[in-house]
Every structure is written in C-alpha cells, then in structure tokens.
TrEMBL record:
Keywords recorded for this protein, A-Z: Acyltransferase, Lipid biosynthesis, Lipid metabolism, Membrane, Phospholipid biosynthesis, Phospholipid metabolism, Transferase, Transmembrane, Transmembrane helix
SUPFAM superfamilies membership: Glycerol-3-phosphate (1)-acyltransferase
GO terms assigned for molecular function: acyltransferase activity
Coiled-coil ranges (or none): none
Organism expressing this protein natively: Astatotilapia calliptera
Name of the protein described by the UniProt record: Phospholipid/glycerol acyltransferase domain-containing protein
GO biological process, one term: phospholipid biosynthetic process
Length: 372
C-alpha cells in the first residue's frame, strides 16, 4: 500500500510539474514572440536607413528567443556534452552544418549547444520542414529568413529552385554565416525502412542508426554559396566568388554534427515542454571538413555524403555500445566537453521578455483606449 501511495504521489508531482511548465512556456511564448515582432516593426525605419544594423539587432533578439527555448530544457536537467572537434574557433567563418535527424528534439538540442558558439546563432539560417512554419515559432523563423522545404518527389525540383532563389536573396544580404540542414530529409523512425530498401536495391551500406542522405539541398547550397574549383571541389578563393561589399570568402567549412541520445531514445519537443523525462545528457559529436575537401559535382558529392553517414553510423554504434564516442584518429582517448549556459544570463533574458511583454501590452492598451 505504501509503495502504491508513493507511486501515486510521484505521478501527481510529475503531472503538476508538467502543467506548471506548460503554463510558463505558454505565457513565455505569448510575451516573447509578439515582443520580437513589435520591436522589429518599430525598427522598420532603421531597416531602410541601415539594413546591416537592423539585421544585427534582429539576430541578437533571435538568439535570445532560442536561449529561452534552451532554458526550458536546461531547467529540467536536459544538458549537452560535446565531443570531437572544437568548432568555436571557426564560429565567424561560413559553414554548412549537416546533422542526423531523429526527432523534433534535435532542433532544441541544436538551439542549446550552439548558444556558446559566438555569433553563430544570430547569424544562422535553418532549413526545416514546411510544417514548422505553422508552429508558434514559425513566424519568428519566417522573419529571420529561414527556409521551409516541402518533402516528397512531387515538390523536390521546385523546392530546390526556391532554395537557390532564397539563398541568393537572403543569405548574404542578412549576413548569414552558418546554414543548418538535415540531409536525411525526415525523422529516422519514418525513413529507416525506405532507406534500407533503397540501400539493398543499389548495393549501398545497410544503416540502422541513420538513413542515407539526400543530395538536393546540400548540392544547391554548395554550388550557390561556394566557388567551384577546377577539381570539382568548392574553394574559398575570393576572386571566384560573387562577393559582397565586404569581400566575403564564401563557405569555408562543412561541419558534420552527430546527435546521440542515451539508450537510443530520442527526446522530442513534448519532453522539452512537459519535462516528464528524468535529467538527460544528450551527446553531440563534431567533425570539421575544409570546404576544399568537399566535392561539388553531384555524383562525387553523393558518395562523399554517403561516406559521412556511414561514419555517423559507426559513431552512433560505438556510442550505444560504450556510452561514449570513439577517440579521434591518432589519440587513445576521446575527450568530452560539458556545454554550459549561464543561469544569470538566462534569467536576464527571461526578465527582459516579460518586461517587454508588459510594456507592449500597456502601449497597445493605451492606443486602443485613445482610438476607441
């Protein structure tokens, strides 16, 4: 009986905590997102006068919004441990970031682990499924200049044309540095069977922890944002780039990020919202490739991407067997780094969001009273 009561008490506490977390996040969204939009409306004259300053301010507020999402997981004990290459030294250089995709929680994990990477978050462009456009954060991403892509053969060719037009129009004009995409084109659980059948049919590696990547978006990004060399690779020779006034070098790196969850149990957005899972450490492995090593021709790039995802398969298999990623070549032991967020900084951002929400509510109420 005592054990039953104890279990019931824990269940009640989990439910109560989930309700409180959901209530806080609902209010957090209601004050932060409209405030972001209203501040940018107020700054529209600045956008006409000096676009670079406008997008600099927008990027700072965008980073703060992503920090709020990160804080939801941080408070619940959801943290990130990083492995492999240290990407912070190249945070000011342009890069294409390819990530394996297991669940909706992958985006939240990226929002958290990139917070301490200099200006990356505020100068980052996301490629995400078009469904995300209709979520609470969709309006923010639309304003920021992220690209929403439709999946499926019926839309594929058109979407790649739209992607190139989007990059030409927004990437350089808004001073973007990193572009993040999920080349698998969907969640692991949804694509695994189809990917394995395709691999069997074409004598490709059988993958369990990842799926075979799709070429389209990566190919467009490399051809649009980098300079093609004679050897078919992408290079950083500024004389061959469509540079802007500040002589941008174009893409300099491809960053291969591998997300691993303990016991291969991905965290989804519901977990981040309700916090019903015990404190969990998500592991992220980084590997950097200079852009000159990356082929741009379709066939060679396809092989290169397949190699990267075979490596991801090996990395994840090792992690699920041992609880850690393998050491880099030439080293005996892999070294991990605990990613940290400053709780004081998070509190200040949340305070600013709620203060802004109250201010805008008061301003709009005053305007309404004056008009009516």
């Amino acid at each position: 009986m005592a054990q039953l009561l104890d279990g019931a008490g824990k269940l009640v506490w989990v439910l109560l905590r989930s309700v409180l977390r959901f209530t806080f996040m609902f209010i957090n969204n209601c004050v932060a997102i409209p405030s972001y939009c209203l501040y940018l409306m107020l700054l529209q004259p600045l956008r006409i006068w000096d676009r670079s300053v406008f997008w600099h301010i927008e990027g700072i507020m965008f980073k703060w919004l992503l920090a709020m999402v990160s804080s939801w997981g941080w408070v619940a004990g959801y943290t990130v441990t990083e492995w492999g290459d240290d990407v912070r030294p190249i945070s000011e250089e342009e890069a294409m970031v390819i990530v394996n995709h297991q669940s909706t929680g992958d985006v939240c994990t990226l929002m958290m682990c990139l917070q301490d990477k200099g200006t990356v978050v505020r100068k980052m462009m996301w490629l995400m499924d078009h469904v995300f456009k209709y979520t609470n954060f969709g309006l923010v991403s639309l304003i920021h200049g992220d690209f929403f892509i439709r999946q499926g053969k019926a839309h594929r060719d058109k979407q790649l044309v739209y992607l190139k037009e989007h990059l030409d129009k927004y990437y350089h004009s808004r001073d973007r540095k990193w572009i993040v995409l999920f080349p698998e084109g969907g969640f692991l659980r949804k694509r695994r069977e189809t990917s394995q059948l395709f691999a069997k049919k074409h004598s490709l590696p059988h993958l369990t922890h990842v799926t075979l990547p799709r070429l389209g978006a990566s190919h467009v990004i490399l051809k649009t944002l980098g300079a093609q060399q004679e050897n078919g690779s992408v290079g950083g020779d500024t004389s061959m780039l469509n540079t802007t006034a500040n002589k941008r070098k174009g893409l300099q790196w491809v960053i291969d990020m591998t997300i691993a969850y303990p016991k291969a149990r991905p965290m989804d957005i519901q977990t981040w919202i309700f916090g019903y899972r015990p404190p969990t450490v998500t592991h992220v492995h980084y590997r950097m490739y200079p852009i000159k090593e990356v082929p741009v021709e379709a066939e060679a790039l396809t092989d290169w991407l397949y190699q990267r995802f075979v490596e991801k398969e090996d990395l994840l298999a090792h992690f699920y067997d041992t609880g850690s990623f393998p050491p880099p070549e030439g080293q005996k032991e892999a070294v991990s780094r605990q990613m940290t967020l400053d709780p004081v900084w998070l509190c200040l951002i949340q305070s600013f969001a709620f203060a802004s929400g109250y201010m805008w509510y008061s301003v709009l109420q005053y305007i309404y009273c004056c008009l009516f």
